[in-house]
User: Which sequence fits this backbone?
C-alpha cells in the first residue's frame, strides 16, 4: 500500500506536495467551493445593483473590457506554455490554468452582456488599454520564443500579480454581482501566482544567472504595467490617494522573488 496522504497537505514532502497542488484532483476541490450554486460566477438570485448612471456604467464596461484582454492574454499564454513545459507536472497545472482563464473570460464577457453590451468581443477590442494590448503582445513573444522562465515570470508573476491587486481593489467598491465574480477570480489568481513563485524560486536557487534575465524582463514590462495600473485605477474610480497603494500591492507580489 502507498503512503497515505496527510490530512494537512502542507505536511507532504515537497515533491509530493507539488504533485498534489498541481493536479486536476486538487483543482476540482479548489474550485468547487466557490463555483457551486453560481451562474456565470455569481449567485443566480443576486439582484443586479450595477450602476444606473450612464457614465458610471460605461466606466464599468471599459474596466471589464480591460479584464477580458488580460484574461485572454493569460489564456493564450498558459495554453502556449503547455508545449514547452519542462515536465508533465507543470503541463497538468497549466492545463488547469487554461480552464481557469477560459472560465474567467467567459464570466466577464457574460457580465458585459448583462450590462447591455451586445457584442462584447468587439467592444473589448475597441476600449481596452493600449498598454494592456502591448503587454499581451510581449507576453506571447516570450511564449513563442520558448523562453520558459521569462514567460512564466511575465504571466504567472507580473500579469497575475497585477490582476490580483486590481481585482481586489475593485471588489471593495464594486456592485454585488461584479464583486462576486471578482472574488471568485481572485481565488484562482492566488493559485497561479503561487505556481509561478514556486517554479521560479526553485530555478533561481539552482541557476542564479536567470535572475539577471528576469530583472531585464521586468524593466522592459514595467512601463506597461504602470500604464495598466493608471488606466484601471481611473476607470474603477480608485481615489488618487489609494492609487499608490495599488501600485505598492503589485510591487510586493513581484518583489517576493527578489526583484
Assistant:
Amino acid at each position: 500500500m502507498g503512503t497515505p496522504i496527510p490530512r494537512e497537505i502542507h505536511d507532504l514532502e515537497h515533491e509530493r506536495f507539488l504533485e498534489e497542488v498541481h493536479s486536476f484532483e486538487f483543482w476540482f476541490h479548489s474550485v468547487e467551493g466557490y463555483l457551486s450554486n453560481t451562474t456565470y460566477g455569481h449567485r443566480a438570485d443576486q439582484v443586479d445593483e450595477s450602476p444606473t448612471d450612464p457614465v458610471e456604467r460605461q466606466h464599468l464596461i471599459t474596466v471589464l473590457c480591460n479584464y477580458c484582454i488580460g484574461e485572454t492574454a493569460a489564456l493564450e499564454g498558459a495554453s502556449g506554455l503547455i508545449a514547452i513545459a519542462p515536465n508533465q507536472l507543470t503541463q497538468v497545472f497549466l492545463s488547469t490554468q487554461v480552464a481557469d482563464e477560459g472560465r474567467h473570460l467567459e464570466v466577464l464577457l457574460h457580465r458585459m452582456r448583462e450590462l447591455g453590451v451586445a457584442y462584447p468581443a468587439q467592444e473589448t477590442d475597441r476600449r481596452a488599454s493600449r498598454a494592456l494590448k502591448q503587454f499581451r503582445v510581449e507576453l506571447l513573444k516570450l511564449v513563442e520564443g520558448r523562453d520558459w522562465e521569462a514567460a512564466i515570470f511575465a504571466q504567472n508573476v507580473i500579469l497575475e500579480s497585477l490582476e490580483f491587486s486590481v481585482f481586489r481593489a475593485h471588489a471593495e467598491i464594486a456592485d454585488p454581482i461584479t464583486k462576486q465574480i471578482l472574488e471568485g477570480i481572485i481565488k484562482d489568481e492566488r493559485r497561479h501566482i503561487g505556481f509561478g513563485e514556486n517554479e521560479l524560486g526553485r530555478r533561481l536557487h539552482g541557476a542564479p544567472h536567470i535572475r539577471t534575465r528576469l530583472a531585464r524582463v521586468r524593466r522592459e514590462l514595467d512601463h506597461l504595467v504602470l500604464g495598466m495600473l493608471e488606466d484601471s485605477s481611473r476607470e474603477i474610480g480608485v481615489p488618487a490617494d489609494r492609487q499608490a497603494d495599488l501600485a505598492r500591492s503589485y510591487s510586493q507580489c513581484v518583489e517576493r522573488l527578489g526583484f
